[in-house]
Amino acid sequence: MERIVFARSSPETKLKVADALRSRGQIVAMTGDGVNDAPALHRAHIGVVMGRSGTDVAREASTMVMTDDDFATIVTAIESGRRVYDNVRKFIVYIFAHLTPEVVPFVVFALSGGAVPLPLTVLRILAIDLGTETLPALALGRERAEPGVMNRPPRPSTQGVINKDMLIRSWGWLGTVSAVLVMTAFFYVLRRAGWQPGEPTGPGTPLHDAYLTATTATFAGIVTCQVGTAIAARTDHAALRDIGLFTNPPLLAGIAFELAFTAALVYVPPLQHLFGTAALPLDVVLLIAAFPPLVWGTDEIRRWSRRRHQ
Predict the structure, then answer these.
(1) CA torsion 253→256→261→262, rounded to 10°?
(2) Residues 6+ apart with CB under 8 A from 75
(3) DSSP states along 250-295
(4) Structure pTM?
């Protein structure tokens, strides 16, 4: 690729260069420190000024101020900014992905006209939203920058934090896979107990205990799907092996907490009475234990396919 170097450029030349590049759809970063550099700094997408030697006017016109007057800091700052931007998107993907498996049980109940009992209660949704997903979501903000983050071209200036691809990934992919898995666990427990659509499952009926176990399996299944989603959300471009499974200790601690919290709600008698849960048998535990690798694995395959076609 042809490169053009402008040495010892005047402020007027800097302004013309910025205008010419912007007219060609390029993202422009401009450095300067004097009063006369202010128009070019302001016209560029990113104006960079020296913090020590730069004038007040130049600092006001710029976007980035280097406090150490070291040009290498520009690269570090941009990499840090891209990491923060990516981590905000990872946080959103993780939160949005759980909306689908939380909504689908109510949709199934409504569409069946009550023939399928409600697979999830509002109290357990609160336990998920306020108890199990908070710490892993916050830990995703501590992710390191993905490999090759500085090799990407700048994102379009019109692109927001939330875009169509993110919604497709969270709601349409991760969320749908999670919803299918948790409803599979729900129906597995009920069908194993001999339930047929329309049979009563309320208190005092022969299927009530099986119903409590089934709704508990739905709740625990959503939590284990959260684990798979958290692992998948750690990377948007690179493969998980490129960043390492154990390189985010706060996330591992958050996952350990949400699993311990879920186990307490499922197996501690006072919490069972409060949340209406029931102890899960071993086969159901083994079933939902397979959800994290399934959620992460399907997303990894989707991202691998995208990388192949790029």
Answers:
(1) 140
(2) 150
(3) HHHHHHHHHHHHHHHHHH-HHHHHHHT--PPPHHHHHHHHTHHHHH
(4) 0.85
Distance separating alpha carbons of residues 91 and 87, to the nearest angstrom: 6
Is the separation of the CB atoms in 228 and 296 below 8 Å?
Answer: yes
Tokens 């450029």 belong to residue? 9
Crossing angle of helices 208-233 and 291-308, in 10° steps, is: 40
SS3 category, 221: helix
pLDDT tier at 309 (50, 70, 90 boundaries)? low
CA 184 to chain centre: 24
CA distance 73 to 70: 6
d(CA 12, CA 289) in angstroms, rounded, equals 65
- Give the whole-angstrom CA distance, residue 274 versus residue 305: 45
The amino acid present at 151, given as its one-letter code, is N
Question: Quick one: pLDDT band at residue 27, thresholds 50, 70, 90?
Answer: confident
